[in-house]
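check these tokens.
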Amino acid sequence: MSQTPETPLLDQVPTPDELRQLKPEQLRQLSDELRTEMIDAVSTSGGHLGSGLGVVELTVALHYVFNTPDDKLVWDVGHQCYPHKILTGRRDRIRTLRQGGGLSGFTKRSESEYDPFGAAHSSTSISAALGFAMANKMQGQPGRGIAVIGDGAMSAGMAYEAMNNAEQAGNRLVVILNDNDMSIAPPVGGLSAYLARMVSSSEYLGLRSLASKAVKKMSRRVHEGIRKAEEYTRGMVTGGTLFEELGFYYVGPIDGHNLDHLIPVLENVRDTSEGPVLIHVVTTKGKGYKFAEESADKYHGVPKFDVITGEKKKSAAGPPAYQNVFGDTLAKLAETDSRICAITAAMPSGTGVDRFAKAHPERSFDVGIAEQHGVTFAAGLAAQGMRPFAAIYSTFLQRAYDQVVHDVAIQNLPVRFAIDRAGLVGADGCTHAGSFDITYLATLPNMVVMAAADEAELANMTYTAAEYDDGPIALRYPRGNGTGVAIPDVLEKLEIGKGRIVREGTKVAILSLGARLEEAKKAADTLEAKGLSTTVADLRFAKPLDEDLIAKLMRTHEVVVTVEEGAIGGLGAHVLTYASDEGLTDADSGNAGLKVRTLRLPDTFIDHETPEKQYDEAGLNAPQIVDCVLKALKHNSANVEEARA
């Protein structure tokens, strides 16, 4: 490869094929250029910075040593995949990250052949890489499965389930444990680097294999004794006993920023015939950017920022974020109720539980990335008389659905589910959207499902849930800031299953659930201007429905439209089922001309965009609500075309 002094190396390696033509001594320069490029790109787009900075050298080394994309490189979660994207033909689009029509903030199969598996939820990488490895083995094809998983993701049981089933993959499976926080092992230095190179070398492994064949001919007792002696001897030095017990050959810990250490170890592992290998790499989140290294969260997720000063672009001051309203309300309620406790699954600040924890640390529990455990833990607390709130994002609660059904709903235990990020979430796209919780919760017997229209309603619903001991109850609320509605000093305990009329009309009724209420009110203003008298109801509850209110509105209005930030099978489906069961739309019902329409999220996964554009695409903003009403009326009113104009 030709190179002139003034030409950056990064300009010469658009894909890993060119990267692998570099000399090992050039990789340090390439890593420095890659880190600079990533910092500059994220400063203009926002996104996840610290995680990617921590794996720059690891990314370079993996693509340099392994034959990607034939060797399948699977990044867990995907927060750290930006350097990977730059090196795999997407550098020219890296400043479009998380923007409409731009690159996803996570790995995505449709984006590149170098993204063999989509990621967003944690702890899936080992299972997926094992699948690639076994498929190649069964098909007689070359190629490994390589999983890069962070220490935080190792708190999820799924990672260990995968490792427990990995032995058949043999040397086709490589797991990189990116340890940037937990201090699993002793400090990394020259000795540990030397030991890592030694125990991964072909000479050591060849001798180990020969010895293994010899001892297998001995008695089982002697064989097991020798095996354990070798395992625990290495375990005392390297800290790998746990992974050895799961069937992996452990190598490490090694400095994940030292290419002179990384490259030889990865090459040894690539060339070995040993079974599944786990390489323990120690890195620093935010590495190489002062402001990220010094930040408490290592610049995990950042808005646009100034590269020179590190100053983040501040959003205009506005109403409090919904998660903070929840956290502050719960903390206040807990002052007079010692039974209230809060559980989060590795998202204390994202759910507002950090605010509760500050006031009541002994009643706050962060279970790590372990939603299944968190839900059943809450069930146990509830069974023993506590009032637990499981504060979990809607998209992450999906991971614990079996526990919601079997451990909570069937036993009718009063677990309170505080479901953050309900509805569409903007830049994080479809993997983090809270699209399905209304559907998957409202279908369960014993479950109560509430949705907050604004921050005052959220505070009231938090209080209502705290006081509800008759079974499981969920309250859902969106990402971002509230509407500016004042939170009452004295909270209201809502009557279960009862909605409220926001404005009275006679011809059109809009039944809103959750945070689309403001759009429903805007739609009503437009319809009123067109001479169509409109009622707006905030149903508050998807289950149980306010059947009396629904029946009244259906009997007194010509068009009824339900509006929700959820997928098909939610509020609209329940309202239609109720109307059908009660014969409210039958020919002899007295209101046979009634038009019922349901507006909900479409049967597609909506990609990352601004929330406003996402809801436009979903058809859930005021203009689409108005259009739905006008189309429903067109068969009944000769004036509808005039009204539309």
User: Anything to note?
Assistant: The longest helix spans residues 27-45. The two ends are 65 Å apart (CA to CA).
